[in-house]
Amino acid sequence: MPSKTKAPTAAKSASADFAALVGRMRQGDRRATSRIVTELERLSPDLPALMQALGPHLGHAEVVGFTGPPGAGKSTLVNAYTSHLRRAGKSVGIIAVDPSSPISGGAILGDRIRMPATLDDDGVFMRSLASRGHLGGLCPAAVRVIDGLDAAGKDAILLETVGTGQSEIDVAEVADVRVVVMAPGLGDDIQAMKAGLLEIADIMVVNKADREGAERTLNQLTGAASLRAGTRAKAAVLKTTATTGDGIAALADAISAVVAGRLEGDRRQRRRRRARYLIARAAADLISERIRAGQDGGLDALADKVLTGRLLPAEAARTLLDK
Amino acid sequence: MPSKTKAPTAAKSASADFAALVGRMRQGDRRATSRIVTELERLSPDLPALMQALGPHLGHAEVVGFTGPPGAGKSTLVNAYTSHLRRAGKSVGIIAVDPSSPISGGAILGDRIRMPATLDDDGVFMRSLASRGHLGGLCPAAVRVIDGLDAAGKDAILLETVGTGQSEIDVAEVADVRVVVMAPGLGDDIQAMKAGLLEIADIMVVNKADREGAERTLNQLTGAASLRAGTRAKAAVLKTTATTGDGIAALADAISAVVAGRLEGDRRQRRRRRARYLIARAAADLISERIRAGQDGGLDALADKVLTGRLLPAEAARTLLDK
To answer: What ranges in chain B are assigned the alpha helix state H?
Structure first.
């Protein structure tokens, strides 16, 4: 039975391969990093062996999430902040989460176009994550790639979403520091995004601050920040002009301040919190699918009670789950 | 025991009140409509009695959802489409879902500012729904208000989100026809929104079509529409300039075509599908909360398996739910 004897050998050789590959990655071999990130992204069947090889090197990087509406200039800001970190001697990983690609068949904004300043810089590694091919979901893939770049020794991992909705929430949940990027002149209903984004922001940035209306946007965000409910610290509100670099140093200081105040705890707990989030999200999707598929016979009766005002949806959900 | 004898009397009188109120609403009494909508929005304790009074009048309206990124001109488009419907003799209800208001303390864009053309038109009723005060959630409140405006006899109910993320998904799930609104010049990463929005769109609109880049945006959306996966019909792609009314008649035709192809089924099923969605969403929130609160002792072990690559988050979720 060759398959029975072959399996452990294959697993062993995968382990040995990965150990060597991780070693090369940690010495700065770009191709090794690229291959490891690809393995992580594509859900290699040897994932456990790979994670084992990465394990001892995890927990160094700080993960900074950038989110905000289209047109706010997130990519340019991420580039400018990357250059700033590089000048300070820090290495950087960039993960651009791009939920658009089931259509386009790949990240719309090529890494080449995205990163002109740092393309040939070995201290920067960038990967765009697209939806296609991520069997286990885009967010779990991003979390695995974070581990890869962390183990590669990157000092900072910048997680940027170019989409909206769920991917925005994901970035917020997965990052250690959350930067929300706005810009003046995006139309009046941009204000409507404040509330949701405010809840997740550690730092709010008015980018394109050289444009008309920047002061007004700044005042709005400052007002909103002062009203934040709960016990969380108020978000810092800053102006940047990413194209000229204005304000980037202050942004870096603000990020450092959040990091200094937060990352003293157990690094393992941060990874666990991420895993917990991924499980919770998957469970929510699963339960929602099951309910909507109507696999539960009692659902129509509950739906009718909701329709006639005798139950709230949340009460019906609790009834269903506690059965 | 006065409370025991009083309760049924109170309920009875609420029923009688609501029957009279619904009667006045159906005769076009704006204040009656406003009061009923407020009762629905605020989760009146007499909700069952109110729903009973509304029940016989439900199922007439078609619900058209408008969603899209900030700056696309959704509000202006909704206004222009409303004027078009009015000229065709149809009555219109507008529900603007505005998740911003926990901060602002009310809808940011007042109804007066929003609806200059139709402010004094009795054939139009508009209500902005804000997060604050909706104990059972914003989406359930919107679904109740849909019932109210449906029972008022509105021919079309236009559901517009001025936020993003979950409220966008909600609009798509709750509407009978889904219109995604885009505009040229919103920056390159606007493209990244295509995929998610594409999946939900029946009709895609390039608004502000008099602006530079409109043809390019149209081509991109047309290309994206032709690639849509699955068995759903391709989305129609149209150009409009809401400020001048250009393209609005064609949009109205496209909406009618979708309605004609879809609403022949059981009207009751549409309401039930909405209720099912509300329950599924509430259940997903609930399960996610429970898991993240760590009420389940087995979670840390599962999280560790995810962290070491031995389980995917979805597999861990299934294990957790099936326990």
So the answer is: 2-26, 30-41, 47-54, 74-87, 101-104, 111-114, 138-151, 166-174, 194-200, 214-226, 248-262, 267-292, 299-307, 313-322
